[in-house]
Fold each of these.
Amino acid sequence: MDAILSLEGVGKIFPGAVALSDVSLSIARGETHIILGENGAGKSTLIKLLAGIYQPDSGAIAFNGQPYQPKTPHDAQQSGIRIVHQELNLLPYLSIAENLMLESLPRRAFGVVDRKALNSRAVALLEEVGLDIDPRTRVEALGVAQMQLVEIAKALSYDSKLLVLDEPTATLTPPEIERLFSIIKRLKARGVTIIYISHRLHEVFEIGNRVTVLRNGRLVATRDLEGLAVPDLVRMMIGRDIADEYGFDARVVPGKVALSVANLKRDASTPDISFAVRHGEILGVAGLVGSGRTEAMRALFGADPKLDGVVEIDGKPVAIAAPKDAVRHGLSLLTEDRKGQGLLLDMAVDKNITITDLSKVSRNGLLNRRAEAAAANDLVGQLRVKASSIEQAVRNLSGGNQQKVVLAKWLFRGTSTLILDEPTRGVDIGARREIYQLLWMLAAQQKGIIMVSSDLPELMGMCHRIIVFSKNRIVGEVPRSDFDQERILSLAYQEYVRP
Amino acid sequence: MSETTVSAPVSPGRAKFLRFLVRDAGVLLALVLITLFFSVTAPYFATSGNALKIFVQIAINTVLAAGMTFVILTGGIDLSVGSVLALCTVVGATVMIDENLSPAVAITLALLACMATGAVCGFLNGWISTRWKIPSFIVTLGMLNMAAGAARVVSDNSTITGLPQSFVDFGNLIIGGFLPSIFLVAVLVIAAGWFVLRFTVFGRMIFAVGTNDEAVRLSGHNPDFYKVAAFTISGLTAGIAAMVYLLRLNIGSPIAGVGYELNAIAAVIIGGTSLIGGKGSIIGTLVGACILQVLSTGLQLLGVGDNFKPIVIGLVIVLAVILDAYRERLLRKIR
């Protein structure tokens, strides 16, 4: 095999965590190599090593037969490795052409930009990725999919030998994904080597030659994709029986309806939706990113305005115009954006926990710091939050412990129904298990739990029932006995595939 | 994505002490050093007469800065306090010189009128900026002009004199020979602010709103309420500062308070309160106000001309903000 890139025993250690350990891998010239792994498996660390953002603590990397030791992203680009990151790095107020050639704008005398050369070169590059747009268009006017293609075109403009795509389809719709795939195939035919990172298992078969699976910072296996199926990949990624991980508790039996939503309509252009969750039930909400799951939950909670709809709690209609109404009626929302919307990052653990109901630790408007500390310590112990003390700023906790603090603040308030939006995103496996256990404890206490997640195995492991969103619509409801990855996925895509 | 756990480098008790040292004691240390420097170098600086003068001079700014601290903690800014103060001085003076009222009644009514006028202006600042989601910088800039205009209308564009003698006497009073009455007022305002911010639910919410108002909203609160309240407090302290102005200068003037807002903001920032909100202390504000005045008086006594003085003071303000950035980095390490 003619290897364009090879890693020998590469490792990377962060204070308190081994991000990557003894990874040996070689990428064949011209292949499309898939890298799979859960959050925290080490995919991002691997990319950052290739991009020159991190340097390995052990092992060696060779690129084109030469030792590869980039100190900065610039070094990486010079060597011919180009990374298209998940967060796009385009400048919104510049034109497509300017973005494409920002690092080497064609110039005439006195440093004046040669617009003609700039735009004609841009047209050629855009053609390669199948984009038929005026290169003078400002990037801000583009959709995410188009921006992604511009990023790829930009990578091509530097005559890259190796293209790394980091979860390029995370925010794309199926037709856009199709288009991206046809471009990837075209690049492959031209001989470009591609490393493709994803956690959408079903899509990788279409474009990949080989797959490497990472788990907990270690390389599990590198295999030819031919002959493998989705369950094989899942087994490699998770490494054990799914049921173990989630600890589905058959003793928890759903009771009466806790919360029901009827004809919830966010705005004139979205269809209305209805669903209900029972006491002691974990209800899964599946769907693609952007399918309206998060938006529906936010509207229900009063976080965003809604046009119409009836919300009933324990059979009684309640008016929810703002989050404070929802909270008063016993609802809790764990937002998908933990840092931006869930936490007071620079404030201490105890202050984050008591913020939901300071009246419990005060009298006549005066805080009782001792009572506050006692309550916070209690919850920190109960949820096993790892912090040096309750006075530690939440910013310095790990993702899993931050998420536990968010849960603690709602437990402090006392809640009857919890809405959890991507509760385990960016949470390491150990803490994830603890969160699952906690959810089962809450379900056993007859609380209603709504769990929104992009992680289908997680939903299938945890939930009594799953409802599926597709293009703002609830297109189906699947009971636990009928759980099937393919079925749920086809429901999720349903509204996008239709003409 | 890989999770990294940060191990705490220091024990909680020591962290608390270090935090105090870096966050609060730093400004105090600066004040002590500056004071020592001028005591040694500037003639007459280390005299009781000069100390009294400094106490008298910082009173107004301290009161304004106390209210400003609340606003800046929520992440806002109040540019209107100087001209709101002017408006309050003419309103207060007009009430006080009413000959149909006994001095005691007139003074009480004037105090209430000042506080009410200021609070209404502050409330409007807060309400307009939250209701229409306009940056408070713009709204209070508008209020700066409106209040200045209103002050001229109320006073008919003239200075109001003839305040009751007992009021004037109280303004000149130096309690026990070392504590000017108006400085006492300033200290009381700071003490009240300190108590509210440190020990009350309301104070906690001010910090929380400044740290992340969206998280506060999604936790079931109305962050706008606290923002409006902070602006109302700033207006209220502008009204109290107007009474201090009347005590000190004995005239109500539509041109009072020009530029005071900038001194108040400077005191808050030097005192270590973060302009983005969520972090700071009102004791720091008092120290910040002291630093500004000690610098000003000290430079004057050193014979630094009026032209150079603002340059030095400006540099100190910039330096304070630079130090603040370093302090943040240090604090992050400790926590």
Amino acid sequence: MPASPPAAGRDDGLPKPWGTIIAFLLPALTLYVGFTAYPAIRTLWNSFHRVLPRREEFIGLANYVELARDDIFWRAVRNTIVWACTSPLIEVTVALLLALALYAKVPGARFFRVAWFTPVLMSYVVVGILWLWIYNNDWGPVNVAMRALGLGAWTRPWLGDPATALPSLIFVTSWMWVGFNMVVLLAALHSLPKEVIEAAELDNCGWGGKLVFVILPLVRATLLNLIVLSFIGKMKIFDLVFITTKGNPLWATETVSTYVYKRAFEWTTFDLGYASTVATVWFVIVLATVLTLTWAFRQREKLEY
Amino acid sequence: MAIVRRSLLLIALALYTSFAAGPFVWAAMMSLRTTTEIHRNHFAFPNPAHWDKFSDAWFKSNYAVYFANSVQVVVVAVLILTVVGAMAAHCLARYKFRFNRVIYFILFSTIIFPPQITIISLFQILVQYGLYNSKLGLTLVYVAIQLPLTIYILESFFARIPADLFDAARMDGYSDWEIFWRVALPIALPAVATTVILNFILLWNEFLYAVVLITEEANRTLPLGIQRFLGDTQEDVGMIATGLMIAIIPVIVVYAFFSERLIQGMTAGAVK
Amino acid sequence: MAVVTIDKLTKVYDRGHAPAADNVSLDIADGEFMVLLGPSGCGKTTTLRMVAGLESITSGTVSIDGRVVNQVPAKDRDIAMVFQSYALYPHMSVKDNLAFGLKRRSVERAEIERRVANVAGILGLAEFLSRKPHALSGGQRQRVALGRAIVRDPKVFLFDEPLSNLDAALRVSTRGEISALHRRLGATMIYVTHDQVEAMTMGTRICIMNGGRVAQVGPPLDVYRRPANTFVASFLGNPPMTLLAAVATDRSGGRCLKVGDSEIELPPGRCPPLRPGSQVTFGIRPEHVAQSAAANGAMIPVEAEIVRVEPLGAETIVIARLPGVEKLVFARLPGDAAFAMGERRQLFLDCGMAHVFDGDGGALGAGDT
């Protein structure tokens, strides 16, 4: 089809068909306002109140003051941030190695690509239960394999030990998301100009040199993108923890999301206000870090070129 | 030398594949074995295969209800999402007007919102309007949470449709509304299909909103049903595995038919 | 069947910027084939889109059969348009593409079938009716685009550079087909192009536009022979008319021009007497430069240095420099003309066919021939 200006690029100057525009947008905007914007604002409003089932009272910043001294909250923040910082790096590193392996024209690359992608299609509920079993102290494959290898002394209830619970769960999310990151990176690799990589070959660049000096800089935008995306995903993590550990043992795996849920719907305080405060503060933290990350990555991009 | 390196690489890839897919194979095997058999040997092949476990789970453990609820909520939500999202995306892509980009940006930025910011109030609001603990309420919430991503994917596709086509349709006598249905939407079918499949998978797996907004047994979706079943029968590994497979199978079927399209949808936001 | 009247039509996209169409007035008679010709950005497409109703009108009016249609939406103007990109609906078969406009207009099913079959017959598309556009060649797509307009049997046909995506050979044959179609349908057509060959061969009249304004309107050969200004003179014709700065001298009653070091005397009637010393532009088309003086006598010999020779077979284009003139003179000579580069020799200007333009570029004495 011969090129003509895309729809977005042309302003015909005709009187704006406002009726049509509103008709097209109204359903989406109604849903957005009703189920996203209004709830978000109401959460903010809640955060200044004590919200009991039949009673609401204004308590100013009391919730925020309490939050500042809430050790469990800060524990949850720390866990979540550790999660959000380590998982993306693991995922992206492993994914890059796998993508490079497939890029090297391995037989069956298509099969591997499709197979590795599967974990991300499963719900965290399914994945959580599977890994509950995999980490099972008595018959989970991890401990079974370790005993078989003579490492019996190192076995433990991986999710029950405060020292290993969080790393074990981080490992699960990485297992889940590596395939996704791999597919994106592979697509990025395939879109690179072949000549550049061939030129590097002629320059007698070794395999490692090619990776560091040619490929990495070229897929860097994609890498950073994936890191931000993974980071956002881990900041929201809820289902996996809720299914496997519920934040136990001793808040070792408590995340902000699970804490908000517990404070709102499980604790017998019945106060939605405090949970709303947690959510509001967390919202601000997530927004700020994501914006900072995007900004920082942009900034460096500019400096280099 | 090259052959040795090749084979080493292939072995490594095969190992990774069994690591990535192994847990599912294991679960699939257990889903066909009884818990007693499993406890005798956790890693044996199903012999004989107990296919009747699926009908047990389906009829005796209420999976039929969970499954039907999931299908109902997800299908209706995806339908609404497709129509509402496509309308908005088409509008934002085709018409130039003030605030166009502002609206687009506001919708788009919602993608990074942590769900906690809305979930507590959604609970209050749905209770207020009698939509708490109802499939309708959950459906509407599902539409709202997937709307930004849907509009984002569709808008970028609609924006590539040449404006001449819309002009031609106008000259042919069609109204804006008809042009959307009879020209824009059919042309955007590939992108629409991508969002349909993507939304189906993501909502099929959704847990957080479901667990907050649904408590009644009769309205539970599959992930909730599995979670409840896990709580009730912690030790019945065999039946839990069967339940997991029931939740996984539709996803596998969709993936088998549309793997490329699904991968494309899931990765749409990640590539720039 | 329709008369289209464009009156002082103006289009301003951004306030403060030059208008895309500036005070365009044009009367298009019933059954006329009007070509809007000009370089890109001259406002021809904007004008066409305003007639179509795809573009708002800043000021002025468009009337069809005497009725002002400024406020009438595109779909109610009974106009069909063929787009440069063809704009075929990619998800519909050829048949559905052709029928799409009819379905909307509550034409009966059998009638739609009949008309589609008829148009497909005329355009040789009968065997492709069930194909999708992506399975067609460029020429076939072009014909579907034409067919989509014809099948509607509209009052007015609009064409927006419909041939510019075709290769050269197809362009020639399609040109002929569109002309034949015009004769056959006798409908009013407005055709936008930047290609002067299309304009010359197809138009009943052409309207040359420049910078949003109408530069000249008239039958193609009239415009070619009597360009109203230097823009039209240099735009039409290939190679273009040579335009040289000249000063009127006091000889021959104000009809003798000094061009560089040469003096050129114009025959009476070619231009009004000029005030000695006035700055004018002297224009001569390549075909009016000859290698020898012909019998009719109006030939003025000039000394020339041959700069370049382009033998094209049937003819030879010779590019020469007159003494004291920076700009080059183009000559279209017979194919057997023997010239050598760098050679100095005499050329003959057929001043009976020369043009003179005043300091502002307007033609002087045109219409006297």
